[in-house]
Amino acid sequence: MSNPFERPYADLKVIELAGDPAGEMTGYLLSQMGAEVIKVEPPEGSPTRAIGPWLHGETGPDSSLTYWYYNSNKRSAVLDYRSAAGLKTLEALLADADIFICTLQPKALKAAGIDHAALSARFPDLIIVSVTAFGLTGPWADYKSSELVALAAGGPLHMCGYDDHAIPPILPGGNQASHIAASFAHKALLVALIDRQMTGKGQLVDVAMHEACAVTVELANPYWFYPKAIVQRQTCRHAQPVRTQPALFESADGKYLYFVLVVAEAKPWANLVAWMESHGMAADLTDEAFKDFAYRQANYAHVQEMVECFFLVNDAETMFHEGQARELPIAIINAPEELFTDRHNIERKFFVDVAHEGVGTFPYPGAPYSFSAFSPVARRRAPKLGEHTDEVLGALAAQAVAAK
Amino acid sequence: MNSIGALNSESRAPGKRRGPLAGIRVADFCWMGVGSMATRFLADFGAEVIKIENRLRLDTPRRLPIYKGVVRAYGHEDANPDPNKGGLHNNYSRNKLGITVNMKTAKGREIIDRLIGASSIVTENFAPGVMERWGLTYDKLQALSPNVIFARMSGFGHSGPYEEYRSYGPVVQAACGMSFISGLPGREPSGWGLSYMDNQAAYTNSSALLMAIYQRNRTGKGTEIDVSAVEAGIHMMGPVMLDVSVNGRVTRGDQYPTGNRLEHPHAAPHGVYPSKGEDRWVAIAVFDDAEWKALAGAMGNPAWAADTKFATQDARFANQDALDAHISDWTRGQDCHDVMHALQMLGVPAGAVQNAQDLNEVDPQIAHRGLFFEMDHPVIGEARFEGEAMKFSRTGPDNWRSAPLLGEDNRYVYRDILGYTDAEIDTLEAEGVI
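The joint structure predicted for all components is written out below.
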């Protein structure tokens, strides 16, 4: 028997009815810290099982790496909640659950006969976490969404793309609209959990991916609230109300680095010139005239060109570490494969090995935070479709017998 | 809304807070966008978050020139800005108390020790080493406040070879891979037009703090928290990480990323199409035959749509260049919101590419749900705020005050909480300690 106080979520039972990465990431954040998460799937499996990339390129319900990523440490029980019998079983599971994660939009809820208000009344200590595209209320509540649509309507997409506005805004990668929704769902359910510690009561929490995106636009809203300015997208740097200088520099080995060339402040300027000088590449930038900000500003194009040349003859790793050693905020635009071999990530033991019996053992990203008082559960592979159906339904049947 | 132009000290005086975190006091050293946003969440839900500031080194959101009536890039700061005029600070530090202290003075550090003793959470996002320089290690904090929660956040985390590296949002996004995976194939990344990872690292830190509070309520024990923004970012990179670790995928090259097109699933059309107006666009995402049929119907079933090269999802996916040209011809000249609604009515996922004006003034969904709200501010006047994107049946945020003026709550905190006399506070002021 594990110690229920060991991890924050160790005594929580979660029922997850989630068909997208937003709801599944929310469930994973709970299972990662010790919750027992039972993923209820229809017979055909969660829709995420049908999304690649695929294990060795072969499709199948148990080989979706999308499903793998978002469903570690969960159990899978097949249960057709759309049938009367299935819905009854789902409700029986909810009877002793602490949290119910549900991604169904209002119409789908109605079709399935799931009524959050009625569930709340019936199970007063249950926390229902609804994570949907647009929320449970409002004129768009049943609109369809996707990563692209969510980031478009929610605001972030307008800020992302290239200087050339003949090119449309470009989708930032990695399912971020879903991750934004999951971050809000996790915060919200924690508020509800803390509230329940004090009151003993659960509640319905309604998180909309659309709204979560609409407040994840950093400066765009304040620029509208205050000067009524609309920021304009720029290549790989902040969208701003006025154009700013490029911040990508290419290195000798064909990589890009992000570096904002600041000429306004004396210290970073001096650090940059000293750095270039150490490579014998400062040329006229060491001239007395460049000590004057107005002169640097007036000759910005020349400065920019000199710095571009400096980067072009040096490799990215050198520029990253030397720049940082001179207190300049700079980084390589890393590709995913480079993260696994990065010595900082290795030394912090960020990646963890996950065994897939019969397939292999693969490194996965670890938890997004660490605590001195407790640690995440060891990451375990996502369940196969219905892998725990017998176990979960059997336990339910045993409970029913014991209750009689 | 109550519009008071001048400081109305009575309505701004701290009172009893409402919400699940009421009664929790936070000694908050957080600053910049990422730190301020992280602790704002605690303040919104009732915690007494005391923002600790240095008059000699103003917090960046106080400095950035996001002012009513003036349009400037955020880098174009005033040399001596009015610390109470910054809109970004107002947005990030509402519902918090604000005090000033000079940590370079022994008296200042003594005051802060007392404040920590009266708090149960300490938060910070300084460059690594700053808290240590003030002697504020976790051991010391525990001695001052048993079972304290100490939340630390930084770009690369509090260990490892890059521990002391400088970072802000775009640097984190570069380092964690988030910039690389965003852009058109065969050219430089388009990345992010915002400090996305400042938002996400802040959310991660808020969750970590709430989790620590929840756990302390269960066990009585506090914890130290280390959030590395880069690690939070890698955790959010999604399935491409497994494509690399499981399949040995190499993403560097001219085939990846794929712009607005998805590799998985085979959605098509899937893109951002021009619409009426300058730089206006609409996103359309079609995942199956039913959605395609509905889209074709919305376009009036043109002859080209019946071409066999668009007959199946895989065929459409294989012929996206031709498909996108046709879709663009249809969207161009139409209003982006009209296209969105017409398609959504037929069950096709579509969304206008909305800017902040749209979110605030056009979007009926956001208006219906009351996401944004207004409060007054003594210097700025009436202002809008980004609300918490979550609705609860039994609780909610407690928006009681706009952001603190610099040092606005010195008297309340130093006298009413810590027990200094007015005369002592006068002296501390005169000596430049607070």
